[in-house]
Amino acid sequence: MVLRQYNLLFSHSSALALWACFAQLVDLKIWNCDALVYWPEKVFQPLVSLRTLQVWYCKKLTGRTQEASEQSAPPERSGLLPRLESLLIDECASLVEVPNLPASLKALFIWNCRNLESIVFGQQEDTPSLIAGSSSETKAFTAVPKLSSPANHSFIPCLESLKISNCRGLAEVANLPPSIKTLKISGCGNLPSLSGQLDALQTLVIDDCRGLKSLESCLGRLPSLEALHLYSCSSLQSLPNGPQAYPSVFDLALV
Q1: Is there a single domain that holds both residue 100 and residue 131?
Q2: Residue 78: predicted pLDDT
Q3: Phi first, then psi: what are they for 219, rounded to 5°?
Q4: Which pTM value belongs to this model?
Q5: Domain check: are 72 and 16 in the same one?
């Protein structure tokens, strides 16, 4: 379904009843909808089958939720868009916050959002918990996932592809999920560094990020990295080094 300059579905009081008819919708594209200011959680609630979402040229979209703007503690939103696999946000000039993302997401593309300053992913913390009733010989521990989420962002265990382009105000990309296989960042001149443990990373492309100084806190040993392309990163001062830093790289371009 494509919605182009169709604001009624986001602004009319009776629109929620219509959205309830789209439970089987798989692909949604939203273009030029000025009524889209907050991330429309109530609208998206019925979209339990949605797999692909694209938001283009919604110049007033901030990415925030209306609830977050009205109270200090936003509600739990983990059940929203439970099957979403791909999200693209492009040419949304007012975007200041990446929306809370579902755990099912595999691909995230953020392009041409000049006022976006940070992308911070949540972290998963494993807290040991003793299994009740076990004997001293068979004591065992099980990892209980706990979410530590800056800006209320969830841990995204399935994210494999992240592409960020022409977000000139971007100054922070933090807690990159370890599941990422492809990371491409271009035209983000204010970005000084990245952080995260990218053990599954296969392709890294960074282009025209002139403020980038270091990748040490992000890349680790890079056991799976196959392609490394760095272009026009004039401030880059260091890369991970050592004999085991790039054991699988066969495609290297440093310009």
Answers
A1: no
A2: 53
A3: -90, -30
A4: 0.83
A5: yes
